[in-house]
Write a structure and sequence with these properties.
Keywords: Repeat, Transit peptide. Helices cover about 75% and strands about 0% of the residues.
Length: about 400
């Protein structure tokens, strides 16, 4: 079972060529390492590297290490990294990149000790350091929460030519402090990045904005969002949700309307969760104009499930407000667009609205239209029976009871 699972993980996580390189000609290297005791990992790697022609370039270890991590074998992944380091030193490789790659894996495995050992080996070998290897080291220290060592590495970078901090360096600190929930540190590193002339990535803007909102630092969240927009960066779904949360907490006037205008102007895409939240806000406020604005925006995209939810939200709003003409327009619009009623409660509030207005003929038209695709349930029939009895509509009452009998409810 373990061997089969390991094979599936490997092939699912990489391309065919990479998988073939990682597993060998018979497709068993990962499975072998998963089943082997840890004391045999390095020996197995050496055997395969020496015996198979396609492994002689040494590149097969990277997808293999990643596959071992996915197979929940971090100790064996560490051993693969150690094997690669020993091989680089034995072959006297003086290119910094393969050492940097090992350290980047150390960030994933949270093995700061091995990362530092690799870095020290590079220094001892006299290999020319660069920004990439320092960034890998900084990321590893941040992954284990060693802020002092990460800061020391950063300060060391500033003093070495060819190793100056770049946008990746600042991004790493901002993202780490977002996870740690340190708002002041996020601001400090964000300002430092801007002063150094670097623009944060979309992922870092997401860390900034969602982090500030979690900490209730709403003015800082707004500042970061406005900076992002001014730079022409298109917000992610997580950023839009955080921005909506920020606006809701700040209780600004026309919150939804302004938000929707920006979404429309920027041609941003809303996910289902954000649409549902906007709909709830509109319903709670009783603002049908904003609901219609949201619906018009959704219709431009491909959010079919969201459009159906909005249709029904608008219908519920008009039904509860007893705006029968608007209600019928909303029903026709939904049905004409191919959307259907999702729950009996929506049908029942419509029926109640017709009864309150004593519009029995229009109720008949509505029922006739939905019967072709919607089977009424017991509670819906009970409402119809109660309404027809109340208004002494005996013919309709008898017909409804007969329909109930045929449906098995009597």
């Amino acid at each position: 079972m373990a061997i089969a699972a390991a094979r599936r993980l490997l092939w699912r996580g990489m391309g065919t060529a990479a998988a073939a390189a990682a597993t060998g000609t018979d497709g068993t290297l990962l499975a072998r390492l998963v089943s082997e005791p840890e004391c045999r990992v390095k020996a197995t790697m050496e055997e395969v590297a020496a015996s198979a022609a396609q492994h002689r370039d040494g590149g097969f270890w990277e997808p293999l290490a990643a596959a071992l991590l996915r197979a929940s074998s971090p100790n064996k992944a560490h051993l693969v990294l150690e094997w690669k380091l020993e091989k680089l030193l034995k072959e006297e490789i003086h290119d910094c990149e393969p050492y940097s790659t090992i350290i980047r894996f150390c960030a994933q495995t949270r093995n700061a000790a091995l990362a530092m050992r690799v870095f020290e080996c590079v220094e001892v070998q006299g290999i020319r350091l660069n920004t990439g290897i320092f960034n890998a080291l900084v990321n590893t220290f941040l992954s284990v929460g060693d802020l002092l060592s990460a800061m020391t590495s950063y300060e060391t970078m500033e003093g070495i030519e060819g190793c100056k901090p770049d946008s990746t360096t600042y991004d790493a600190f901002i993202s780490a402090f977002s996870v740690l929930g340190s708002g002041h540190a996020m601001i400090t590193w964000y300002i430092a990045a801007k002063n150094a002339g670097f623009t944060p990535s979309i992922q870092v803007f997401e860390s900034l904005i969602t982090g500030f909102v979690r900490l209730n630092m709403l003015d800082d969240a707004k500042m970061a969002f406005e900076d992002m927009i001014s730079l022409g960066v298109k917000p992610s779904s997580a950023i839009l949700e955080a921005n909506l949360e920020m606006l809701s907490r700040k209780k600004e006037v026309n919150t939804v309307r302004d938000f929707l205008k920006r979404v429309s102007d920027g041609d941003w895409e809303l996910n289902k969760a954000t649409v549902e939240r906007l709909m709830r806000v509109c319903l709670d406020k009783g603002d049908i104009d904003e609901m219609e604005q949201l619906f018009a925006l959704i219709q431009k995209g491909t959010h079919l499930s969201s459009a159906t939810q909005l249709h029904q939200g608008i219908i519920r709003f008009y039904a509860k407000a007893d705006r029968l003409a608007d209600l019928e327009d909303a029903i026709c619009r939904m049905l004409d667009n191919g959307a259907m009623f999702m729950c009996p409660e929506d049908v029942e509030v419509i029926i109640c609205s017709y009864f309150r207005h004593k519009e029995f003929d229009r109720l008949d038209l509505f029922l006739n239209r939905i019967r072709s695709f919607l089977k009424l349930n017991r509670s819906t029939y009970d409402i119809l029976v109660a309404g027809y009895r109340k208004f002494d509509l005996h013919e309709r009452l008898d017909s409804t009871i007969n329909d109930m009998r045929q449906a098995g409810f009597v």
